[in-house]
Design goal:
alpha/beta; UDP N-Acetylglucosamine Acyltransferase, domain 1; eight-stranded mixed β-sheet; 3 helices; 11% helix; 27% strand; globular
Length: 256
């Protein structure tokens, strides 16, 4: 991945304790999520984030049947997105009315930090998994709280995605694969069967991981790469076949 692929998705500051009292639900089956519903049929949602990734999450939420009532962003994000107001904190009245949230930070560590800033555990009732109607998710797959499957994404039979994962546009998780919490697949990334992706790891645009392999935690596989062997934790690997480039340190950008 190169600097040209980076987007401005720095963490959005949230009010501590905004969702105090909620509880984490690790995984939820897809069956509870309807598709192709009319606008607002699933209720009201606030998108936490207002950068580039938030645009894709908003499309998925709206297409799935949620009414977007606000984005939570920084002052430099502007006043509105798609005619929806950008605010600086989660509206208290939204949560009081039983509204739900989607954390839309594209950087994996930043996404985890935003959830942590809330200072509480969360449930799938507050952070539902979002699936675009054009995506294909097996009835035998499971998605964790806050995970998003964007347009044309595929999650195969027996696959499990943890909490707050991203299966980006056209990305594919084949049968029996696992995605660790806060991990992400870039647009067009492909995982063979029984591939394991570790917590907070990022698989770049168009990258391919051979079946049966593992990518450790906090690792990066660069755009267009082909992994034919395991990628250890905290490694950055590029190329076809992918080769070690450097170690990652905590807080290092993913997309540079």
């Amino acid at each position: 991945m190169t600097a040209s692929e980076a987007v401005d998705d720095r963490p959005t500051l949230l009010q501590p304790g905004a969702l105090r009292g909620a509880r984490l639900l690790g995984r939820v089956g897809l069956g509870r999520y309807a598709r192709c519903m009319s606008a607002g049929a699933l209720g009201r949602i606030v998108i936490v984030g207002a950068g580039g990734h938030a645009t894709s999450v908003a499309e998925t939420a709206a297409a799935a049947g949620y009414e977007i009532v606000a984005f939570v962003g920084r002052p430099d994000h502007g006043a509105t997105r798609f005619g929806v107001p950008i605010v600086t904190e989660v509206p208290a009245e939204h949560m009081a009315r039983g509204g739900v949230l989607a954390v839309a930070e594209g950087d994996n560590a930043a996404r985890e930090a935003v959830v942590s800033q809330l200072g509480v555990e969360v449930t799938a009732d507050v952070f539902p998994a979002l699936v675009h109607p054009s995506a294909s998710v097996s009835r035998f797959a499971s998605l964790g709280a806050g995970t998003v499957v964007l347009q044309a994404g595929v999650v195969g039979a027996g696959a499990e995605a943890g909490a707050f994962c991203i299966v980006n546009t056209g990305a594919s998780v084949d049968h029996d694969g696992t995605l660790g919490d806060y991990s992400s697949l870039g647009p067009g990334a492909t995982l063979g069967g029984t591939v394991h992706i570790g917590r907070r790891s990022a698989i770049g645009i168009g990258a391919v991981v051979k079946h049966g392999l593992s990518v450790g935690a906090d690792a990066v596989l660069g755009a267009g790469s082909y992994a034919h062997t395991d990628v250890p934790s905290n490694f950055v690997a590029y190329g076809s076949p992918a080769a070690f480039v450097r170690h990652r340190n905590p807080g290092d950008p993913y997309l540079r």
